[in-house]
Amino acid sequence: MSEPEKSEDIPEESAGKEKGSPNGGNPAKSEEDFNLAAIYVSDAQYNRNIYFDTSPQAVRLYMRYNHWIPKVLLYFFILVDLSLALFEDPAIFPLPIWATMLVELLCLLVFTLRLGHYAQVIPRDKFWKDPKNICIIVILLLTLVDMIIYGALKATNCYGVRWSRVLRPLLLVNVTEGRQLRRAFRSIRNALPQIFYVFLLFMFSLLIFSLMALKLLGKRGLKTIDGSPYFTNYLQILFDLYVLVTTANSPDVMMPAYNNSYVFAIFFILYILINTYIFMSVFLAVVYNNYKKYLKEEVRQLVRAKRHKMVQAFGVLQEQREGGGEPVVTHHNWNQLIRLVQPDIRNAHRELLWSVADDNNQGCIGKVAFVQMADLLNIEVITLKSRPHPLHGLCPALYLSAPSRLLCRLVQHRAFVIVYDLIILVNAVFIGLDEENPLIANSEWAFLALYLLEILLKLYVFEPRAFFSRHSFWNWFDTIIVVSALLATIVNSAVMSTGNYTSRQILDIVFILRVLRLIRVVDSIKRFRTIINTLIRIGPAILTFGQLIIVVYYIFAMVGMELFKGKVKFYAEDSSDPEKAFCGNPLLNGSDFAQLNYCKNNFNNVVSSFVLLLELTVVNQCSGFATVTHASARLFFIVFHIMVVIVIINIFVAFVLEAFFVEYSVEKSDLQTSLERKIEELELAVAVNSNLNQHKRLCHLKCSAALLKCLPSLFTLLLSVSKFYNLSPNS
Amino acid sequence: MSEPEKSEDIPEESAGKEKGSPNGGNPAKSEEDFNLAAIYVSDAQYNRNIYFDTSPQAVRLYMRYNHWIPKVLLYFFILVDLSLALFEDPAIFPLPIWATMLVELLCLLVFTLRLGHYAQVIPRDKFWKDPKNICIIVILLLTLVDMIIYGALKATNCYGVRWSRVLRPLLLVNVTEGRQLRRAFRSIRNALPQIFYVFLLFMFSLLIFSLMALKLLGKRGLKTIDGSPYFTNYLQILFDLYVLVTTANSPDVMMPAYNNSYVFAIFFILYILINTYIFMSVFLAVVYNNYKKYLKEEVRQLVRAKRHKMVQAFGVLQEQREGGGEPVVTHHNWNQLIRLVQPDIRNAHRELLWSVADDNNQGCIGKVAFVQMADLLNIEVITLKSRPHPLHGLCPALYLSAPSRLLCRLVQHRAFVIVYDLIILVNAVFIGLDEENPLIANSEWAFLALYLLEILLKLYVFEPRAFFSRHSFWNWFDTIIVVSALLATIVNSAVMSTGNYTSRQILDIVFILRVLRLIRVVDSIKRFRTIINTLIRIGPAILTFGQLIIVVYYIFAMVGMELFKGKVKFYAEDSSDPEKAFCGNPLLNGSDFAQLNYCKNNFNNVVSSFVLLLELTVVNQCSGFATVTHASARLFFIVFHIMVVIVIINIFVAFVLEAFFVEYSVEKSDLQTSLERKIEELELAVAVNSNLNQHKRLCHLKCSAALLKCLPSLFTLLLSVSKFYNLSPNS
Fold it and tell me: For labeling, which of A324, A341, B167, B679 is most exposed (least CB within 10 Å)?
């Protein structure tokens, strides 16, 4: 948020007088008061929960603390800090130690400065009581200690481990802005005790089944596929059966026993039924239930904190009315406040909000209406003006002529959509065919021309600013894809015509763009649209999960790199090195790992570590690493599986489930939040008291021309899932 | 239900006179009336929904139709019909065709008779309107036609296919008693449209990704591990990527591209994120949501039908009271009815039910109270009598002596449980150790003695009939396991001492029993108990799922056997046949399938088909079968995966989730159903009007001795999950 400035475009006194000046007997509010109130409101709006000092100086510092520039800088330096792993040993792009150390020192400095700024803003005792500050300080100190030790060891040519790298992703969690991430971790931590009990029971079942397997199968002298004795070592059985839960070794582990007798299939069927199906479902149930429970609790606290902040803001700005009664905030003070909170808000939007708040048109609002404001501000209201098409203004005779009207009607017809869907399908077939054929290669130009024509026609028919409005996702998508495909195809043709050389990269981009174009079909089928919209709506929350996954992956990648780096080597396809056959490690000679060409699944740098961890998330294949190090290396993989698959992936599934349930229940009950209702009421109010904002009136769907028919509603309330959560305890 | 008999032990008139004879002016109800009312009530109680004829003769036939003997016979013959697959070609135990055909004819005859009986019971027009009857008739006719054709073909030595075998499991669904199963299938059918749309979107995403893979990776000349070109055939890519969703070929399919460049990992990561994680979660969400929705609708209809039946029963038995007003059912008629509905009900229990229904002790009940009876009858009420210990009666001096009291207190102490848990843990370690060691082998006797001692001590302290009451699951479990372990160990020792020969089977049983004993530990940890109890509670519903799975598996097994029988052969371990290396099919020479020793995963008989289908449910490995037949054989496996994994397993997971959510929400809110409350109220009523059943009074927890302290409550209301559903719309 930028520094507050006095707004000059609206005469201050007139607004107060118009409404009968209810603040007659009250002293005018100072700039400090407005700053303080604005900060309270914006904290409530963005769910910040910081107990800052209320002295004018601290407030000013706090406003600077919340400015977007230091925030972006902070995240940039966190990113730099995290991506140092690319350049440190084991590196993809090796850099000397002093260079990475210097960059890391810079990062540490930035983090320290940011923390120092924070310490200035909030009271001293609050600062030292907050575990996240302590965390950051400890991380910074430990990193510094580690760097000194490592530098000293390297200087004396000793072996050193940069163990503090594990701590880096924790910064992402502990910075003030990592609120969502902290909430997610807190939810996980709170759900852990319940998960733990189910996990114990699951482990108990695993131990019992392993014991039974040892007793039943160990004495029969069976052999596994590679000739080693089958099910004779208890720990080995335990591990094999654990992996069976992940279905990674599904038929293999059972085959020797099954080949011996049909009867043993019963053992494995029971095992799979109980442990793979029932226990994994119970994990999901427990995770889902607890996650939801604690999320609700968090949201409840958040709503309480928000209300508290708004009450504080009200307390700063409140005035006593002449006739006594409840304290109120005047329209004038409210305007000034909103201008501070959202400097870029339009006057029309502000007036809309005011008329929602000031239901009875009294010129001032009470506490209850004021408290609702934080939620009101969060609702995005798209104001659509029934502007005529620019061509209509330029040459109305032509634009309103019969052929032009016919064209407009054609483009708006359902058949137009269907024809283009068919074109896309034909295009899909053409893409699938061999593009070496000159006919196919040239057809690409025809398709591009058709797509361009579609966009131009739509621009002719629809008002361009409405067509490219902020929330017309598919229009933007279409245009960007088609235009970039056009550019890429032109560049590609140019490159091809200049010489025989065909750039693989450009061709790849062309292909990807061509295929992406096909996705457009989805939008024209209504049933698909609802599913896609739900998926798009949970997008932001998936980003939080992305951060969570990155934090966990980063920690495991750092540990994995220290444990397994260089144990498995990858040789390029064309390498003729004899070591290629066993990934450069004789221990892997003849192993499945080498035979299946898994050599690139290693911990030799941070990128391949991440890819390997993703593979482990999908299917827990880790026998290779136990072979090259020690059987106990499996512990690393089991811990990873428990952390990521049993806990985090289940939370992810729970989250998707919850999002869809909310979507279905909202769709079904046609429930409208109180805010939607208020704005609907206001539509009437606007229609009646149109003098409120005469120069820029919010138009209705009905008063707009048929041009905007395709746009479903005037106010698109973009209640993202997270906002839905915030509102639900109210409704 | 057995034929109704006039009860003789209670004088009929006296009951009526005692209560002031409210049925003074009404004619006495005939036996037919009672039969009809009893049938309505028992239909309501067991949720039967059959519109039977109400003529006395039809009612009598209908009572015979509901008798348990024909039902058990029917299921026995269905089982025989289904297990014919074991003896028909491809058979495990080959029988001549005439033998299996004769048995099948017998089965058909039984089914026809049963259907004929049913046709006598319900009105003609209802019979022909019911799709399940039509289904059975069609199945019977088709089977007959198929048998004739097959017999004729075999007689002329032509090739014939017993295609009607696919229809056999459908009998399980369409018989009158397959209500639960039909309900499950109906829920699936109703959920299908929604699943279908998500599935289309998923297929669309698959097609787009495959096209992109073809364009990006097909032209690079990459090779798979076995040297064939990588990602050049569109259908092959489609199949590979579909299998990637099941995670069966997780790293393998990606390795050639990943080995070529890190960049291609992005493609696969995106693919896995979207299709494996998001789409599979969406499937679960959609299945869960729809299943729940339709299940609720079904339950609502069921409750409505139940109420309707009870109203009809009330209509048969109702009488006008002397003073006018609402019609009622007298205590006397009610008693007679209940005796018909549940001949084995205890008098005390019946009186309890009556006092719940007749709240104000008026001697007669109205419609509302009568309608509730069906639910009341379904609640199992365990009556515990505070009987003294038999030893107390035999020699009270000894049993009440100080050492005996001390012993009782010791056994009831927490430490006793802990000591035995420790013994079990030590036993677990001993089991894990090598039993060849004589010390270990002899320790088994010590453990057995300890366990026996525990049971005897408990029998000394607790009243034996309370200890072995119907719902003391763990007491029964313990005793059965310990006693059978003792017997098996003795038999084993006897066999061993007579000669050197050790029977492997007996030893296996001994080991299994030893390990099962360890499960007991679970019961002594409270947190575990709740989880286990939920699992036990969903047991009956899992049986319905078991039937559902068997129906689907059976159909796929029959089709699979016709398609793939004899294509892959299994040779025993010790066989020296050179064909063993490629499962008897030269097409498999050098394939993964043969190398991994999967030869026993075949469709050569019904048992191995079932095991293979289970393996396919866990991990979709089917490349071998496409090799030995044709690439299109994969369709069979894809259809199986869609049907079983995407639909049925998701419903199973949804079911477990729902059961746990219900469990958690009930535990949390401590919600009591109205019936529980009523019975609690009654506890007081019993305490006050103890003259109601003086000779056999239901005792309170408090009035019983400390002996029964360990039993948590007097009335254990066993509301199974299905019953919970039935009640929830009321509460």
Answer: A324
